[in-house]
Fold this protein.
Amino acid sequence: MKGAPLRVYAILYLLFLYAPIALLPLFAFNDATIIAFPLKGFTTHWFTDLAANTALRQAVGNSLFIAAMTAVFATLLGLCAARAGAMARFPGKGGIIGFVMLPLVLPEIIVAVSLLIVMRQVLGLNLSNWTVIAAHVLICAPFSIAILNGAFQNLDPSIEEAAMDLGESRFSAFRLVTLPLVWPGIVSSLLIAFTISLDEFIIAFFLTGANPTMPVYIWGLLRFPAQLPVVMALGTILVALSVVLLVIAELFRRRGLARAGIKDTGGFL
Amino acid sequence: MLLAPPFLYALALLALPILAVVLFSFWTQDFMTIDTGFTLANYREFFDKPIYTVLLGRSLMVSGIVTLVTVILAYPVAYFLSFHVAPARKSLWLFLITIPFWTSYLIRVFLWKVILGYNGVINSGLVGAGIIDEPLSFILYNVNAVIITLAHAFAPFAILPIFVALEKIDRSLIEASRDLGETRISTFFRVTLPLSMPGLVAAVLIVFIPTIGDYVTPELMGGAGGKLIANMIQTQFLQLNNAPMGAAIAIVAMTCVTAIALVFVGLNRRWLRGRG
């Protein structure tokens, strides 16, 4: 078979991608405080330690709240942009969409420091969960737009027009006709924005208030060697959770593409 | 009409804040208050004190090497996906490639420490196999470790744009080239590679630009000699409480990255035109 060497290379590459993650469960269940080989024995007490840590539970709560809010707002913005991108034509459209997508390629630290300056020095706001949400919506919106663009791509504007001709208002035409067609894309966008926000550290570290988000709390733990197995346990749960969320998001994205009647060209990006 | 909300949001939380950073970089921190007199003092300090230029130089070098490594390693994978994987299985492959990218970044970086460390996976493996006597020390707490970790973190970013560009290539062009007597290798260099250039350029930009802004990896993996410019920006803002200096560093770093990116895109365009 002519692609054989390439196939071997691609599989090795996948192993390289998964190497760090594969180590997580090994150390999460390893009965030793030091994260190194050889492994000592099986234990689940890092997971029980995890459950007993109230500061961490609070951080997880903050992160879940931030991620949920971010998912909703980013998806709303994404819906506006994707709908306008798919159905309307006007001068400067490309430039405006390009500008909205800019956070995708901007170094995160630039987003972080610019928002820190505005929030703290210009507006004099106290940092809170909402400052993190504001920033996360900014960086998640491009992903939502990209996903929803896929869902809107082959949507024929004339079906919505037909509904309006038949007496529906503009909003109910959208609700009754377009929304059901793009619904899977919306779910997929919500899940992706949620996953990105839950994991985001670089910006959250600058903008988090008195209550740290989960990644910011983990960052603090990384400096204490005794806490590392607990971090491994947490990481194992997070990886499992994000794999589940991503599988659901992917299934919905595919269903959305199928509804829009286009061929799957792959990936989220 | 509908574009207004996302546009206004990006304007308010992206464009205006960046303008504020530019403005701040011309001000100075006067103990607890900000002196709003216009001055170039921050920029002068940047170019006078070697620490800043050394960090910036190192950052650009690390980003450059990471980009080169990531894109070269990613191209064959993207090529394989596009040309050798059955269409029905392509999205499964892409999904498998993107999963690690979505899972806890901090913990992933930390795990590289476990892999590369003194008692890490690689060292204990090599010592155990009797290949080396002493654990290797050049793979952690230096620039090499930063490069390996960043190259791993940005891998999917490089694969996806190249894959998309390869998918768009009309397969009959490749057949035509083969029919006209080109070998498989010369067809690749004269047809496939130039046609996939837009994806390659996108991959380079999407890796090169964001890597400059990462301070997690150099902080955890770089040790004393592996710190980068983003660490300095972070220190100025969060520890030294000198937002104007931090702003000036951010502006210089951003300008350099943008300039390099533009030169790269320009050169690439000229090269493609020269061939056509």
The CA atoms of residues 4 and 119 of chain A lie 55 Å apart. Residues 58-260 of chain A form a domain with the MetI-like fold fold (CATH 1.10.3720.10). Chain A touches chain B through 88 residues (CB under 8 Å).
